[in-house]
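Pipeline run #58 for the internal structure catalog. This entry was flagged by the ingest filter as a single-chain record with no existing model, so it goes straight to prediction. Upstream metadata was stripped on purpose; only the residue string is passed forward. Reviewer on rotation: M.T. Logging verbosity set to normal.
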Amino acid sequence: MILRSFVVLVFAAGVAAACWLSPEPRAGDDCGVVMSLPERAGAFVGRPGEVSQKEKDTLPADTEIVRMVYQTAAKDLVTASIILAGAERRSIHRPEVCLSGQGWTLLDAKTLPVEIKRGESMEVRDLLIEKPVTLPDGGQRRIQAHYVYWFVGSDVTTPSNWTRMWLSTRDSIMRNVNHRWAYPAVMAVVTDGFKPGETKERARTADETLRLITALVGELAPTFQRSLMNHPVAQTTP
């Protein structure tokens, strides 16, 4: 037990020394995304989405947000956003925190690959969530949605928040890089079981909704993620 404590203490001291002696990291002005979402992405046509005042008030003032609401010919609706951190790192965090604060309950979570190009894929995190809503007629019902996200650094991407934090520390010490993290997210409501008049979208099961989202991610990611524009993605997973 004494030996183990000594090893831990030496390791912690080594990390502290590395942080102290390493050069000041770059400011991270070069981010891994272009803060723009296209009006068209494959079969999807988009229009600018609203960024709520609550989001603006909650996030640091220098946080950048772009949002588009995409629709297919079948009237499927999918919302895509990119949040880019400013000087304050609290702009980027585990989305489960915000979703819980908005009344969503997490039903399931998994990491899955999304095909970007032939022979190339990228891992994302999928959350199946649920919340109660009040209908226009005053009735209540619970709705489900899929929420897919990942994190993009200056030259890396990961679906894991823990890996993101590890990369931030490692690259600050070993590479003199201070990642300006971006957080793309794509969300769609599961419409299966809705009554006539409750939605204008077609009925979609949870699996169909997830396939719809991943199809949009595959179209969108190469339009704003620099590592996918000309080169294979440099991805790190837990």
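catalog note: The two ends are 29 Å apart (CA to CA).
catalog note: Residues 27-229 form one domain.
status: ready for reviewer M.T.
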